[in-house]
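Entry for the shared binder. Reason: the reviewer on the internal report wants the predicted structure included alongside the sequence.
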Amino acid sequence: MTSTHNLTALAADHLAAARSAPHGRSAELLLHEDQLRQSVIALTEGTTLEEHNAPPAATLQILTGRVRLTALSGDVTLTESEIHAIPQERHGLVALTDAVVLLTAVTA
């Protein structure tokens, strides 16, 4: 059975937690069913998620703020309410403003 989450409330809670965290971020795994994962990730302005491998399939939805998805194939700036497929290559994320994203990933 899955649970329901209020993304607006989660975004506010995690952004508050990120602002008080020494590393400038807060995250929570919301959904973990078979190969499907959804996580909310809050980052304060200037905080980065270092380059890492991509899952077999993933999207990044911006709940609040503005981020830059960095990848060898080119960087993409994303703003609130946008959704973008994560490239199948090593990539990173930089918060251009305080931001909260919803990461949806399918793992092998």
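Summary line for the report: The first helix runs from residue 7 to 20.
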